[in-house]
């Protein structure tokens, strides 16, 4: 009798532990449609069934679809176009779903939606958390939620690794060079990556467009210098510049290049974080 009661109690405990948990749809037979998500656009994105033709607009959306294994359902267009030429290409592609970066003109997206009746999702991309959310949303819309969880889990592993490595490390003042001393603000995706790597973007939240004043940069004297790979900036070039060579980061060699493809709002942001953290805190990764 006691054994039977113990078995019953264990069964009830197991059932109680599972209460409140949301079952992850792992099989093809588990319905996930209709589905609605809220991206960076004003209105939500809703789909009643699995989209078979998906048009990505922007480097981030291209990378997300590829990471989710959606190449066969991806229909590419020349997304360097703007205005009516872009809308014409999208219309010809006959998409069920358009996944666009925030760089795409909202008017072009509205015209494309009207011309195709496709659902439109705009990826949030101003932080690492935004990118993880975008990957999850696209995974739901495209019927690949499990694949999306695997991709975001990889980003989260990189974030945990960096957090553990940098425990107790000081914040490092940092300049981000996207080409010819032009920079990007702390409220951007790359700015959030620098912050997660215990860095402080010296350009502030909203720097002016164009090259950052070099004399001002020298007076701020950042401790670290991060350049994107397509910027063309090298440490040798900086040391050859009569003003830039005086910057603390240039003098000490606390300089590094991050692959531009990793710094896009896509699955590479975790690797971008690791790369930036290595530049800012080289001793933590020895």
Quick rundown:
The chain has 2 domains: 32-155, Nitrogenase molybdenum iron protein domain (Rossmann fold, 3-Layer(aba) Sandwich), CATH 3.40.50.1980; 166-285, 3-Layer(aba) Sandwich (Rossmann fold). 42% of the residues lie in helices and 13% in strands. It has 11 helices and 9 strands.
Main β-sheet, spatial strand arrangement: 7-6-8-9
Helix content class: 40-55%
Per DSSP, the total helix count is 11
- CATH superfamily placement of the largest domain: Nitrogenase molybdenum iron protein domain
Subunit organisation of the chains? single chain
Proportion in β-strands: 5-15%
> First CA to last CA: what distance?
61 Å
* Overall pLDDT level: 91
Radius of gyration: 23 Å
Give the biggest sheet. Answer: 4 strands, parallel
Stated plainly, the CATH topology of the largest domain is called Rossmann fold
Number of domains: 2
Task: Supply the CATH class of the largest domain.
Answer: Alpha Beta
CATH architecture name of the largest domain: 3-Layer(aba) Sandwich
Which sequence of SSEs, written as H and E, runs from N to C? HEEEHHEHEHHEHEHEHHEH
Low-confidence stretches: 1-24
Apparent shape: globular
Written account of the structure:
The protein has two domains: 32-155, Nitrogenase molybdenum iron protein domain (Rossmann fold), CATH 3.40.50; 166-285, Rossmann fold. The chain is built from eleven helices and nine strands. The protein has helices at residues 2-18, 59-67, 83-93, 106-116, 128-141, 145-165, 189-196, 214-220, 235-240, 248-252, 269-280; strands at 35-37, 45-47, 54-57, 97-100, 119-122, 172-177, 199-201, 224-228, 255-258. The strands form three sheets. Strands 7-6-8-9 form a four-stranded parallel beta sheet. It has a three-stranded parallel beta sheet with strand order 3-4-5, covered by helices on one side. The model is unreliable at 1-24 (pLDDT under 50).
């Amino acid at each position: 009798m006691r054994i039977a009661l113990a078995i019953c109690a264990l069964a009830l405990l197991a059932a109680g532990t599972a209460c409140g948990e949301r079952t992850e749809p792992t099989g093809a037979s588990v319905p996930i449609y209709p589905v609605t998500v809220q991206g960076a656009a004003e209105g939500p994105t809703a789909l009643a069934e699995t989209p078979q033709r998906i048009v990505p607009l922007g480097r981030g959306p291209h990378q997300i679809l590829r990471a989710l294994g959606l190449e066969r359902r991806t229909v590419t267009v020349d997304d360097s176009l703007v205005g009516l030429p872009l809308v014409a290409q999208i219309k010809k592609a006959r998409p069920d779903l358009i996944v666009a970066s925030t760089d795409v003109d909202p008017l072009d997206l509205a015209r494309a939606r009207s011309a195709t009746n496709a659902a439109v999702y705009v990826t949030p991309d101003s932080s690492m958390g935004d990118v993880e959310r975008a990957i999850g949303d696209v995974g739901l819309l495209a019927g690949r939620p499990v694949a999306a969880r695997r991709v975001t889990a990889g980003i989260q592993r990189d974030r945990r690794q960096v957090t553990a490595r940098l425990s107790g490390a000081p914040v490092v003042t940092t300049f981000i060079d996207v080409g010819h001393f032009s920079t990007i603000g702390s409220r951007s995706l790359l700015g959030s990556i620098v912050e997660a790597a215990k860095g402080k973007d010296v350009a502030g939240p909203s720097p002016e467009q164009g090259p950052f004043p070099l004399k001002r940069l020298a007076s701020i004297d950042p401790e670290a210098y991060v350049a994107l790979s397509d910027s063309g900036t090298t440490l040798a070039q900086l040391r050859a510049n009569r003003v830039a060579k005086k910057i603390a980061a240039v003098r000490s060699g606390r300089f590094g290049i991050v692959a531009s493809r990793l710094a896009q709002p896509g699955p590479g942001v975790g690797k971008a974080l690791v790369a930036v953290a290595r530049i800012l805190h080289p001793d933590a990764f020895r």
